[in-house]
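User: Earlier you gave me the apo prediction for this protein. Now I'd like the version with NAP bound, so I can compare the two side by side. Same sequence as before, with the ligand SMILES added.
Assistant: Got it. Here's the input I'm using:
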Amino acid sequence: MTSPSPLASAALVFGASGGIGRALVSNLLSDSRYSCVYAVSREPDFQSLSSHCTLIQADPLDPDSVGRAVENIKHPLTRVIITTGMLHDSVQKPEKSWRALETETLARSFAINCTAPIMVLKALIPLLPRTGRCEIAALGARVASISDNRNGGWYGYRASKAALAMLIKTLSIELARTHPDCICALLHPGTVDTAMSKPFQSGVSPEKLFTPEFSASALLSVLDGLVPSQSGGHFAWDGSPIPA
Ligand SMILES: NC(=O)c1ccc[n+]([C@@H]2O[C@H](COP(=O)([O-])OP(=O)(O)OC[C@H]3O[C@@H](n4cnc5c(N)ncnc54)[C@H](OP(=O)(O)O)[C@@H]3O)[C@@H](O)[C@H]2O)c1
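And here is the structure of the complex with NAP:
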């Protein structure tokens, strides 16, 4: 096997088995700027995607497994997207009322939606080039906007994504000093037809329910268009800024 050129750049998607994660990987594999796309997931299962797709198994909640994943990355990373997020699963549902608040489920929402993405970014920052453009992004959500919160509910999801927005903003300020061409952003994918939105799609009009492919393509265009002075912001799939 030939070793990768030290100058070749790579993209990485963490949370690559989810609906939007898979579509991001697939889109990035057709982008000639990247000689390799790392697809990191708890259970990577799409071996045949392409010869320049490298699958890595890692759990974002397990620092040892993230550390082992990083050891497998052989290229500088010029685009990193963390898709990790949870609104509901077999353990918990989004809270409709304060009566449903529980210490354990709130802590779990914060662990998956906020701590996991920032700790993965912490592990990956040493692989970013110090000079030259690079982008690091995590998937946010419009419902994380405090000023846009008109419906209430979804306490843990909203709050953990809002906290992630603060972590991304804070990270962007520090990275501007050491990686002046790096753009750090939170991206809202729209309402996307994935397992996450399935239980909540009935009130969504068809034109507002995006395919994962449409959303992934839109998010990658947004990343392409961002400049370092916008680093730290939260942007929707159409490039519009989402207020804190
Ligand atoms: N779908 C929407 O309408 C919508 C709207 C706004 C924001 N978002 C955000 O977009 C991102 C992707 O969502 P999606 O729609 O693609 O949902 P999805 O198909 O459920 O994917 C969720 C991703 O999060 C990871 N994940 C879920 N539970 C986890 C856990 N317990 N521990 C570790 N990792 C876990 C999974 O990683 P693995 O690859 O390891 O399985 C998966 O890639 C999320 O951050 C979500 O909050 C989605």
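For your comparison, keep in mind: The CA atoms of residues 135 and 188 lie 15 Å apart.
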